[in-house]
Amino acid sequence: MALRALWVLRHDPRAGGAVLFSRRYPTVETRAEAFNGSTHVAIPSDNDFLKALLFELRLTDDQSFVEHRDTCTRIDHSSVHSVRVEGGDLWPVVAFQKSGLIYACLPLVEETLEPRPPLLTISGLSQGLALLFGILDYISPSRKNEAEMSAKIGQLRNLLIQACPLGTPLNTNISSLNSSFDDIQVIPTDEKQPVWRSNTYKGKPQVNVSITEKVKCMQYDKRDVVDMWQVYGVVNCKCDIEGAAPNVTLTLNLPTNGSPLQDILVHHCVTSVDPAMLMSSSVDPLDDSVYSGPYKFPFIPPSDSFNLCYYTSQVPVPPILGCYQLIEEGSQLKLTVNLKLHESIKNSFEYCEARIPFFNRGPIAHLEYKVSYGQLDLSREKSLLVWVIGQKFPKSSEVSLTGTVTFGAAGEEHPTDYVCTGNTAYVKMYFRIPDFTLTGCYVDQHSVQIFAPGKPKITASRELISSDYYIWNSEASAPIMYKSLYY
Fold first, then answer.
1. Which one, of 263, 257, 268, lies nearest residue 230 by Cα?
2. Using CA atoms, how far apart are residues 399 and 388, in angstroms rounded to an integer?
3. Is the pLDDT of residue 187 over 50?
4. Could you give the dihedral angle defined by the CA atoms of residues 264, 268, 271 and 273, in that order, rounded to the nearest 10 degrees?
5. In this model, does residue 14 exceed pLDDT 70?
6. Cα separation values, 26 from 2, 33, 168, Å
7. How many Å apart are CA 212 and CA 462, to the nearest integer?
């Protein structure tokens, strides 16, 4: 359970890529050479790795067909990639892109790489992914401020000395660490106290648990294209409990009609887990293993807030069904948007809005519209329509927007996009539903067991948030995952 290297990279479609941060672990690399033997592939220079990874992720200008990368027999369903470098195929590279940054790491595989071992047998994958998520959470709030983001990246090396000493992830909650060495806790003298529990709490015991589910969606409203959606969940805990090594058991439950959790990754403080929980996977389409809970996690909590587990789930329907039609009529565009809240979804939003951007065009010069519900606003740049639906859908659970738009002359200040050319366009949904999860997953406060003195105060919350929730124009081409066999 170690990492050979990790990177934070930047991808800019105009300026290309850049290496913002890299960290290599020579001792782990020596172990990799011993374990992998003749199948070992050395890590190239940072710049060579950046070019190879951008090529693997199809983020380069060269869009020509490459058989080893683009063949139909190789469809990526996960964040694990094989990156072709000068010495061979570097595998398994864990990499994902978020807000213009690419987070990547290379876990250690403690056996030969040919034939490739099953992903579930490589323990470093889950820990590497959890560490990358921790770095993402640490950097993400400052990504719009270049100076602040540079400062945080500059602190990463010191933080990783605590979080991932000698390439072994110990604490994936980067935000909870101190970037200087002044306040690093001394090694606990109590031999029962784990290294991730750096101090002992004094006071009334209390446990806070929050479940956050994010739903991603691609809707096309086309007969020959399959709509795609999936839920990504994280369970965050903060346990203020006395004792050097208090034991806590938390159980996640599902209602009778709840959607099973898949691809579960647990924090390293979890002391044991039912193997059946970890076997349910969305990566293998032939995998029909289903585990419907209860999902029990015994653990010794760290001192600070931490993510107990991550999971995915394939729910039967997306929360909001949509149809977007954008057609050109002479010098103007005619748009129609229909949205419907599914009957199983709680009709109580903190916010709900649909944003309709217009790329590669001038400012909106004239707008005529009619909305059945909510209000429509035009952005200051006059290139974005914001349809504010509010905190509830009407009793019919359906809302609609129709209108016509004409544009002025385009200038350099107006947004451009390489995908949304012609009438290729989308509506992007933004919403949050408190006290609700799409899977139905919840924490029964009475089922939380704490083996420590005192009666604890237990609070639990949950929420559903939209993330990359797109409804594409059904009257034009759109980027798709794959097409249905039924036409």
1. 263
2. 11
3. no
4. 10
5. no
6. 12, 11, 12
7. 6
Assess contact for 438 and 464: CB atoms under 8 A. yes
Burial of 71 by CB count in 10 Å (0-12 exposed, 13-18 middle, 19+ buried)? exposed
Strand partners, 364: 407
Cβ-in-10-Å burial (0-12, 13-18, 19+) of 170 comes to middle
Contact between residue 94 and residue 57 where contact means Cβ atoms under 8 Å apart: no
For 283-334, write each residue's pLDDT tens digit.
655 555 677 778 999 999 988 889 999 999 989 899 999 999 999 988 899 9
Paired with 217 in beta bridges are: 229, 469
Task: Specify burial of residue 206 (Cβ count, 10 A radius: 0-12, 13-18, 19+).
Answer: middle
Tokens of 163: 């979080």
- List C-alpha distances in Å: 225 to 230, 240, 440, 476: 16, 49, 28, 12
Q: Which two tokens stand for residue 415?
A: 């947004």
